[in-house]
């Protein structure tokens, strides 16, 4: 229900507005104040719905923004922001392998060393999709990144980030690497300083 009210696709209130305009014009042509009034009311609903959808962020929209902030904190090596976004029991997993890192401090230390070693220079999210189940919002992202270790050749990857709400704000609970170029988890892990 929240998505229908606050994360509405642009075309839906536009369609309602067009219907309202049609009804108002029809009422005006027939000199029927009641029909014209209904048309104007429908237009007001469409405008109000659009404004409300724009001003209020759903949990999925909040987590999508947090995901962008997380990616940028890694690229900028802004470890304060990075740490603030992590849950104390955060976990990293590489899909389809046994590779995992559990705990905020362990992940923090590993990632700092790995990012420094790889030399990440930029990352751009090229696609994202959020879904919400129970108390978890999962954001699936596609990322193009450049790094010194690949001689600035762009690398494409897919990730899923699970955000959970605690103490009134969302924190990153799990990071899953779905695909990093065409490399296996062992190939990536073998090239990193922190295994």
Provide a descriptive summary of the structure in words:
With 195 residues, the chain is of the alpha+beta class. The protein folds into 2 domains: 2-55; 59-190, Nuclear Transport Factor 2, Chain: A (Roll). Helices cover 47% and strands 32% of the residues. The chain contains 7 helices and 6 strands; from the N terminus they run αααααββαββββα. It has helices at residues 2-6, 11-29, 33-55, 59-75, 79-85, 104-118, 185-190; strands at 86-94, 100-102, 120-133, 136-147, 155-166, 169-180. The chain has a 6-stranded mixed sheet with strand order 2-1-6-5-4-3. A hairpin with a 2-residue loop joins β3 (120-133) and β4. α2 (11-29) packs antiparallel against α3 (33-55) and α4 runs antiparallel to α5. The longest helix has 23 residues, at 33-55. The protein starts with a helix and ends in a 5-residue tail after the last helix. The mean pLDDT is 89.
Give the structural class. alpha+beta
Q: Order of helices and strands, N to C? A: HHHHHEEHEEEEH
Would you report the number of β strands?
Answer: 6
Number of helices: 7
**Form type:** elongated
What is the highest CATH level, the class of the largest domain? Alpha Beta
Percent of sequence in beta strands: 25-35%
Query: Largest sheet, described in full?
Result: 6 strands, mixed
Provide the CATH topology of the largest domain.
Nuclear Transport Factor 2, Chain: A
The oligomeric state of the chains shown is single chain
Give the integer mean of the pLDDT values: 89
Task: Please indicate the count of domains.
Answer: 2
> How many angstroms separate the termini?
44 Å
**Strand order of the main beta sheet, please?**
2-1-6-5-4-3
Low-confidence stretches: none
CATH architecture of the largest domain: Roll
- Round the Cα radius of gyration to an integer and report it: 23 Å
Helix content: 40-55%
